[in-house]
Design brief:
75 residues, mainly alpha, 0% strand, flat
């Protein structure tokens, strides 16, 4: 599912779109985390959840920054 999401974002927006790059990076991070999780390990899953929360905060900041930058460039 993550691989399909990565391909869809890359195809639709390409690597030059700022938001697409952020989305692709988050998908790649999620893919790495899911691939490294041992089965039925609650501690590992909770650690991954903490990392996901940090990623969401980072993505939120990136979206806000890009949005603010785009608004400043509009006449």
């Amino acid at each position: 599912m993550l691989e399909s999401a990565h391909k869809a974002v890359a195809k639709e927006f390409g690597p030059d779109d700022d938001l697409a790059r952020v989305a692709l990076h988050l998908i790649e991070c999620a893919t790495d985390v899911v691939g490294g999780l041992p089965d039925a390990d609650l501690d590992a899953a909770q650690e991954a959840l903490g990392a996901a929360r940090a990623a969401v905060l980072t993505a939120t900041y990136a979206v806000r920054r890009i949005h603010d930058h785009a608004r400043r460039e509009q006449p």
